[in-house]
Amino acid sequence: MDAPDQPGTRPVAKKRVSALKIRPLTGRAGIRVSGEVTLTTRASWEQALEDALRGSGDVVLDLSGLTFIDVGGATALVLAAQDLDGRRRLVIKGPPPALRRTLAAFSPELAAIEVTT
Fold first, then answer.
1. pTM here?
2. Would you say 34 and 65 are in contact if contact means Cβ atoms under 8 Å apart?
3. Which of 12, 60, 83, 84 is a Cys-bridge partner for 112, taking CB atoms 3.0 to 4.6 Å apart?
């Protein structure tokens, strides 16, 4: 029997598992991302970015379903954009507000990223 009101005991916090879903867009180059980019999902995020950039032309990243992206995930996105050849762009649709602000801070230096709503 649990005794949560006993002195010196605290309720046990449930471990939160972050999920990341990545699906290809239909009819154009890019991916649709939902969930969270965190330490536990970052490898999948980085692989998805690498795969999406393999082709030619602009790449659309629909992030409207993304609820959170940590600093490492945002860094991976910026590094992916820097790897483009100068003629291609990452078109980011519906990023979370914090990512939108982060990208705006790098705006002049990141001509390869276009943020849309």
1. 0.81
2. yes
3. 84
User: Residue with structure tokens 């309720």?
Assistant: 11
82-97 tens-digit pLDDT: 888 788 999 999 999 9
Q: Can you give the residue ranges of every domain in the chain?
A: 20-116
DSSP bridge partners of 68 = 36
Options 2.30.42.10, 3.50.50.60, 3.30.750.24, 3.40.50.1470; which CATH number does 20-116 get?
3.30.750.24
Q: Which secondary structure element, helix H or strand E, spans residue 95, and what is its range?
A: none
Q: What pLDDT, in 10s, does the model give residues 4-21?
A: 555 666 665 555 556 999
Instruction: Find the largest Cα–Cα distance for the chain.
Output: 65
Those residues whose C-beta lies under 8 Å from the C-beta of residue 69, and which sit 6 or more positions away, are: 36, 37, 63, 77, 95, 96, 98, 99
Across residues 52-80, what is the average pLDDT? 93
CA-based angle 19:23:27, to the nearest 5?
160
